[in-house]
Design brief:
The chain is of the alpha+beta class. It has ten helices and 18 strands. The strands form four sheets. Strands 11, 12, 13, 14, 15, 16, 17 and 18 form an eight-stranded antiparallel beta sheet that branches. It has a four-stranded antiparallel beta sheet with strand order 4-3-2-5, with no helix packed on it. A three-stranded antiparallel beta sheet has the order 1-10-9. β6 and β7 form a beta hairpin. α2 crosses α10. The radius of gyration is 23 Å and the shape is globular. The model has no long low-confidence stretch (mean pLDDT 94).
Length: 386
């Protein structure tokens, strides 16, 4: 379809007059491709978490919306992201998660790369027994690195390379949560789970941003963290979400709780916040734990939600961590039927994007505005260049 066929004018109106994004933004492969570039490749997107490559040499291949990437912890203990291809003929280098003991060797012609991306070996490139050739400058043929940054253990990437530095692009969020800029300890295997959801990734964002649905979708959570206990978080063009004023710590059999993060202000004794860092990372902070959900879009109508839980100290109670993970898995699973139902609804040809509650949907509308404004700006640049 012609991208210009999606009219986004009504999306950018004030919330009381606005409609949501048109159906094509949830179902059409061409619009998905457009959004992939404009919303996910051009800015800072979440790819995975650093905990997935905990030791030097650990390598994790990831398909990022069709682009083969490789996350690796190099010999200097730095997490790097490369395109997972050999510079010779474009062969995939690493097919499965594994540890690189020596070099990254291409299975096709055995070109080898160091964990920092340098091309270190080109066997027979100059003919049998000749491992060099004047036309092959190894210094220019290292792995193609993707710009990356780690914050809240999330590995953020900027595929285009054109975004402002991460600290600049996300300065407002880093300032808001500066108290949590300290070591985080992943809860281990039981604190990581993935939900496979049949919906466009944006619906997962939209649902996460608001608390309006709590009484009906999360009755257990709403029993103590009621709708009226929540507040909106809105930073136009950057992030949105919601917070609660009545966070209740989970307790073990003997009333034990997780240790708090050190140095928190009194606000966090009872408050907790849940924010989407646009485009695809859902974050939560509490006095005693945090979480990150990295959304991995898999086509227009499928999303993988990778959930990771973190604590202020290592070695916390295994039973308590299991209880906390089970509680969050229940909450997140309760949302699945909603986002999948909305996805099916986007195939109703007369649906106009829907309307927003001016009182309750501010964070969701803010995300729609962000999507629409970036798409409109990209289309304007493309038209100007034609």
């Amino acid at each position: 379809m012609d991208h210009s066929a999606t009219d986004l004018n009504t999306v950018c109106r004030p919330i009381a007059e606005a409609n949501g994004l048109p159906n094509a933004h949830y179902t059409d492969p061409d619009v998905f491709a457009e959004e992939k570039q404009v919303l996910l490749y051009d800015g800072w997107s979440g790819l995975t978490v650093a905990t997935e490559v905990p030791e030097v040499g650990d390598a994790l291949p990831i398909d990022f919306m069709g682009m083969p990437l490789l996350v690796i912890r190099d010999r200097n203990n730095a997490v790097r992201v490369f395109q997972n291809i050999c510079r010779h003929r474009g062969m995939i280098l690493v097919e499965e998660r594994r540890k690189i003991e020596g070099a990254i060797r291409c299975p096709y012609h055995s070109w080898c790369y160091a964990t920092d991306g340098r091309l270190v070996s080109t066997p027979h490139v100059g003919g049998p027994g000749q491992n060099t050739h004047e036309g092959i400058d190894r210094a220019l043929l290292g792995l193609i690195e993707v710009r990356s940054h780690i914050w809240m253990d999330v590995v953020w990437i900027n595929v285009s390379g054109n975004a402002p530095p991460f600290e600049e692009a996300n300065a407002a969020l880093l300032a808001r949560w500066h108290e949590f800029d300290k070591p985080l300890y992943h809860g281990g295997a039981q604190s990581h789970f993935t939900l496979e959801v049949n919906c466009n990734w944006k619906l997962a964002v939209e649902n996460y941003c608001e608390s309006y649905h709590l009484p009906w979708v999360h009755p257990g959570l709403n029993s103590y963290s009621r709708l009226e206990d929540h507040y909106h978080i809105e930073e136009p063009g950057l992030f949105s979400g919601q917070g609660t004023l009545v966070y209740r710590q989970i307790k073990g059999h003997n009333e034990e709780v997780f240790p708090d993060f050190a140095g928190l202000t009194p606000k966090w004794n009872e408050a907790a916040e849940y924010i989407t860092a646009f485009p695809n990372v859902l974050l939560g902070v509490h006095r005693d734990h945090t979480f990150a959900i990295v959304l991995q879009p898999d086509g227009p109508e499928k999303t993988l939600e990778h959930v990771h839980l973190y604590y202020a100290q290592a070695g916390t109670s295994e039973d308590l961590r299991a209880r906390n993970a089970a509680q969050w898995k229940t909450v997140f699973a309760e949302d699945v039927f909603v986002v999948e139902g909305m996805q099916r609804g986007r195939h109703a040809v007369s649906f106009d994007g829907g309307r927003f509650s001016p009182a309750m949907d501010g964070p969701t509308h803010l995300f729609h505005q962000w999507v629409a404004s970036r798409i409109d700006a990209s289309r304007a640049r493309r038209q100007a260049a034609e």
